[in-house]
Specification:
2 domains, Zinc Finger, Delta Prime, domain 3, 358 residues, 6-stranded mixed beta sheet, disordered N terminus, 6 strands, 16 helices, Rossmann fold, alpha/beta
């Protein structure tokens, strides 16, 4: 649970996925910032709906604050946790004058009374405190967005990357940020294999950089993400969403044994289940048309159509819950990440056979 308990709160460490367990330079990749780029500015405004970039915007501020003061107190709150009066409590002068970072997620959803509190704070921010507002950037909550900009907040753009060209540029930048070289064909193959999930793309780059010496080429990416002895995270996900529990578990165990990061497997599972949900609710049409609508390559549309047999809306919901539980388990919420993954794979395979059970 997130909240005010503890020094850091539930999100204060920021999801420690492979996508974020990278050199600090990568934390800044793809985040477009205003000229006012003091990481310890009184207010940072992260605008957009790309979760990975939003998390990185938070982490770079936290990293800078802790570089200045290792004992920095980080409070990470969702919009419903920031009630009227809470901000004043968090930003009140401390006896020990400690540095503090206060993160507010989904700021567009704050109540009217809390927005008044935030606007008042923007006019007279406290010293040694950095307020980080994460805002979707749409019309909802625009008054707060405008107020933060008027107050001179440092702004980080975190737009959703809907175009394949943007995701390709993201992958190239991820490699550049590590100081490693990857051929254009390797970058394109990675995007084609993984799709639109930036976390998975970033995690894949991190995995390749850690495992492979020298220039990363198309052949290397192919070995990892279109085969790897049938042990990639995508193989696990494919077998699970097809309802083939035994084969999915076998692929899972072999993947873990050959060094595939658990967070990459949960990401692949999530991607596989979400693809089922998206396609099942989409309008009919040619694969090329659906590909544009859903942000998937046409070949994946055909594969997901084959995997959809046996799925129901309730099954998709159950599977997404199972993935969320596994994701928490592999990120420190449980004692045994392997068991969390096995449990999720079984639950997803069962959900894939939900049609006709009821």
């Amino acid at each position: 649970m997130t909240g005010l308990t503890g020094r850091t709160g539930a999100h204060s460490s920021v999801p420690v996925a492979a996508a974020l367990s990278v050199p600090r330079a990568m934390l800044y990749a793809m985040a477009k910032k205003t000229a006012h780029d003091d990481l310890l500015a009184s207010v940072t405004l992260a605008v957009g709906q790309e979760e990975l970039l939003l998390d990185r915007a938070v982490q770079e501020v936290v990293a800078a604050a802790r570089a200045a003061d290792a004992d920095t107190d980080v409070r990470d709150l969702t919009s419903d946790q920031l009630q009227p009066g809470t901000l004043a409590e968090l930003t009140s002068p401390s006896l020990f004058a400690e540095r503090k970072v206060v993160v507010v997620r989904n700021a567009q959803d704050l109540s009217a009374d809390t927005v008044k509190d935030v606007k008042a704070y923007l006019g007279a921010p406290a010293e040694e405190i950095t307020l980080v507002l994460l805002h979707a950037g749409a019309a909802k909550g625009k008054a707060l967005l405008d107020a933060a900009r008027k107050a001179g907040a440092r702004e980080v753009a975190c737009p959703k990357m809907t175009k394949p060209a943007d995701r390709l540029a993201f992958v190239r930048q991820e490699f550049r940020a590590t100081g490693r070289s990857a051929t254009p064909e390797a970058c394109q193959t990675l995007v084609d294999a993984i799709g639109s999930d930036l976390r998975e793309l970033a995690a894949a780059v991190s995995q390749l950089v850690a495992d492979v010496e020298g220039t990363i080429d198309e052949a290397v990416v192919g070995r990892y993400y279109t085969g790897r002895a049938e042990a990639s995270s995508f193989t696990v996900a494919d077998r699970a969403v097809e309802g083939r529990a035994a084969e999915a578990l076998e692929a899972l165990r072999w993947s873990l044994a050959t060094g595939v990061a658990p967070v990459m497997i949960t990401s692949a599972l999530a991607q596989g289940v979400r693809a089922i949900g998206k396609l099942s609710s989409a309008r009919g049409g040619r694969p090329a048309d659906l590909a544009r609508e859903l942000g998937m390559p046409p070949w994946k549309i055909d594969r997901v159509r084959q995997q959809m047999r046996g799925w129901t809306p309730d099954g998709v919901a159950d599977a997404l819950r199972a993935v969320a539980e596994a994701d928490a388990g592999v990120k420190g919420g449980g004692d045994d990440p392997e068991y969390a993954l096995e449990k999720a794979v079984v639950a997803i395979a069962r959900a894939a056979r939900s049609r006709g059970r009821g």
